[in-house]
Amino acid sequence: MINEKIQFDMAAELLKKFLPAEMHEAALKELNAEREEKSLEPKEKFSASDRAAILVEALPYIQEFHGKTIVIKYGGNAMVNDELKASVMQDVALMKFVGINVVIVHGGGPEITGFLKKLGKESSFVSGLRVTDEETVEIAEMVLDGKINSEIVTLLNRRGLRAVGLSGKDADLIQAEKKLATVYEDGEKTKVDIGYVGKAKQVNIRIVNDLIGQGYVPVIAPIGVGEDGESYNINADYVAADIAGALKAEKLLLLTDTEGVYKNFEDKKSFISTLKADEARAFIKDGIISGGMIPKVEACLRALDRGTNKAYIIDGRLPHSIILELFTAAGLGTEVL
What we know:
This protein has 337 residues and is an alpha/beta fold. It has a single domain (4-336), classed as Carbamate kinase (3-Layer(aba) Sandwich), CATH 3.40.1160. The protein is 44% helix and 24% strand. It contains 11 helices and 16 strands. It has helices spanning 4-18, 21-37, 48-65, 82-97, 109-118, 134-157, 206-213, 236-247, 277-285, 293-305, 321-327; strands at residues 69-74, 101-106, 125-126, 129-130, 163-167, 174-185, 188-203, 217-221, 223-225, 231-233, 251-256, 261-262, 271-272, 274-275, 310-315, 334-336. The strands form 5 sheets. Strands 5-8-2-1-11-15-16-14 form an 8-stranded mixed beta sheet, with helices on both faces. It has a two-stranded antiparallel ribbon with strand order 3-4. It is globular.
């Protein structure tokens, strides 16, 4: 694992190397602010060979992914922590400026929960999915599409990108139907109705392809539209998987608030760096993978089944985790295959 000091130094080198000159000062200023706020020890100056080694390590990955499409599911603490927000936006800017097509699908669970709490509504979940009545889906749509989506677009635009916000309802991007939650108990599978929670029945990817072709970064809120025009709240992991599959993306990256998948979360030595599909399904059935990790693992499997090349669950709490996964040999997180 690359230590924190080297992570920052590598990010600074890549930003300096690949961002347009007019963006250097602002980007490096943000990076240095992160260092100061985290009270990092003053770094030893890299030698010329150290700097070259960082770029040489990144170069083959930049070449490999140039012109390819990578879908990022943006969620968890990386959406509510200002330092991590800046880190993610820098990573996306770097990816875009070195020729990678980036599509972002975002969640917003903590903000939805917070807003519901202000209104006196408690949140409940079944198999990692929010129980969603008619009032809750209206609030979810307002928070996801009206607040979070526009904020992400603004943050990206401020970094010199051309970002466009979309809801799954725009241009019938995500035609949805009701999704029943799956509950495993004593090895038995039961389906449970949890309200206006949906799944994609059809993904009309043309608008996303059109935006990518014109150099935009599509930012997608996970709201789908039903046959009668009703809104469905769709888990953002599943939406990211469907979008990645429809685009035949090179990679799907799911940001989460843990290092990846564990066989026993209490035992850090049980971390799983590579998870095979059959193992994943068995772990879900046996309760080894549970709660909010179920949609993430299922989303990876879904994306792979639909034509995505690779799928990863990575720790979004780590600054520049996206760059570290894409542009270093060590990589991060759990690959599902």
